[in-house]
Amino acid sequence: MELNLYEQNWLKRGGEFEENSVQLRRKLPRGTNHLPPELVLQSQKERLIEAVALCIHQKGYAATSVKDIIQQASVSRTTFYKLFTDKEACYFYCFKKLSSLHLRLLIQTYSDHQTDFRRAFEVSTLAFIQQLTVNKIYASAFFALAPYSTLSVVAELNVVKAHYVSLLVYWFSILPSQISRSVLPQDVFKIVIEGIFSYIRQWIIQGQEQSTENVHHHVCYVIFSTLGLNDWAKQHLEKLI
Q: I need a surface site. Which of 6, 9, 199, 208 has the fewest CB within 10 A?
């Protein structure tokens, strides 16, 4: 009996971005005198991350001020500037941390299933999409709204997308010849990743109205069909009709 992908939680190695925050907040109510200074500072940083996410999710990057963030996080201005030089540095830190988590999760999940090329691809992309539903505010603030923030974040986002392009190129290149004999130009892979990122961004902005399963079927169909893996693509399309 074939395993149902959508009945599984593929996030066993993901989610530490949120989990660490919860653990630190539990250790740090409001009285911090009995805790090591480094733990206090780390907890304050985690509270600032949550505050940045909420403020930007609600107001957008441009309309969010340092004052908004420190009020939401209940930390002092002095503490904020001890941790970050400005709002841009704070947001860049958050974006890079979350995007690194997503990339690491996808790679680790793929590695666990790499003996089956198709299954490894499907499971790893599903884990990536599932991760975005763990915390919708984080997904909005640090993924969907990232292109509308700062030049440094947009530059880092382009680096992130380049990593995904490289992974897709590598995965396609190691497919056995009986599965695919096609040789595709690099721009095809760039277009695929750009389109998938844009599609997922809109899904998040619209409140994730479509189910994770449907989004995954769309993503797999587009990627497989574009790369000429028509039999694999057809199986995902049939789930959407």
A: 9
